[in-house]
Amino acid sequence: MDKPGVGQSQGVCAKADFNAELSGWRAAFASMSQYDFIDTDRIVVLGMSNGGGFAPLVAQGHPVRGYIATSTWGRTWYEHMLELERRRLTSSGQTPAQVNDAVKAFAGFYDLYLNRGLTPGQVIAKHPEWKDLWYDERDGQYGRPAAFYQQLQALNLGRAWQEVNAPVLVIYGTGDTIMSRSDSDAISEIVNIAHPGAAENFIFERMTHLFEVDGNFYDALVPKVTELDERPPFGSRCALACSPLAMSTEPDSSLLMRLCCTMSFSFGP
Question: Are residues 112 and 242 in the same domain?
Fold first, then answer.
């Protein structure tokens, strides 16, 4: 499926909030039962980036053979953003003291933005001393409206993943500058608390958020994933939930298509 305003889908992607987008993912998942060529008993849900975090919400309790969560998150969006800001500030060359002061300010900024429902512009109007901290739009972030990320923050991914009753594979690359190792580890930790041994982590050295090493697709990822086809209950069908951030930074979808195709998976409609 295409997101609102992407490909042949109607609407405007930059104006769609998360709840509207999630309803589309759910409709696409539910529609798979209409197609004879899809074995609905052998569906694996593959979530990339933001999509990996909320993948269980797409299935809405319908049985699946397994989940693959790649370059993703399993905590609150507030925690993710504070950690991201710390890494961004550190890599920009600021001193540890400057980073510490900025993260303290960002903690208040994101609380008002993500938890209290203010837009970034409204937060800055309330706290003009934080004006120089903000680097994005006044009414949104990463090309999406503020409501998109406020709705991500409202999710309870702990509940979503603890209710998963299927094997889970979590994939992370140490070259990822968007999602952290702790973002990914949270998913396997949650699943294994509820169902010991049900989740497994694969860590790939130097692989980036978009599955690349030195600018090329990391082919070593493929056999690690296709091994799942030899170990039931994982099957050979794939429903894809991607991140708005990944889609906006990748000039075309060939990388994502290649990932799924080389894993011998086929897309749901």
Answer: no
Helix axis angle for 146-154 and 18-31, nearest 10°, is 70
Domain count, the chain: 2
> CB within 8 A of 132, min separation 6: which ones?
none
Report, as ranges of residue numbers, the positions in the chain whose pLDDT lies below 50: 233-238, 242-269
Alpha helices in 163-202 (DSSP H): 181-194
| Residue 190 structure tokens | 């949650």
User: Do both 163 and 198 map to the same domain?
Assistant: yes
Domain containing residue 209: 13-75+157-267
Q: What are 63-87's pLDDT values in tens digits?
A: 899 999 999 999 999 999 999 999 9
Same structural domain for residues 42 and 100? no
236: domain CATH number is 3.40.50.1820
Residue pair 73/170 in contact (Cβ under 8 Å)? The answer is no
Backbone angles phi and psi of 165, in degrees to 5: -120, 60
The rounded distance, in Å, linking the Cα atoms of 25 and 81 is 24
Gap between the Cα atoms of 126 and 120, Å rounded: 10
Hunting for tokens 């894993």 — which residue is that?
A: 263
Closest C-alpha to 258, from 204, 196, 227, 216: 216
215 with 177, same domain: the answer is yes
DSSP string, 36-81: TTS-TTSEEEEEETHHHHSHHHHHTT---SEEEEES---S-HHHHH
Enter the pTM of the model. Answer: 0.85
pLDDT of residue 13: 83
Is residue 171 assigned to a domain?
yes
Cα–Cα distance, 98 to 218 (Å, whole number): 36
Q: Tokens at residue 37, please?
A: 């060529």
Query: 185 and 250 in one domain?
Result: yes
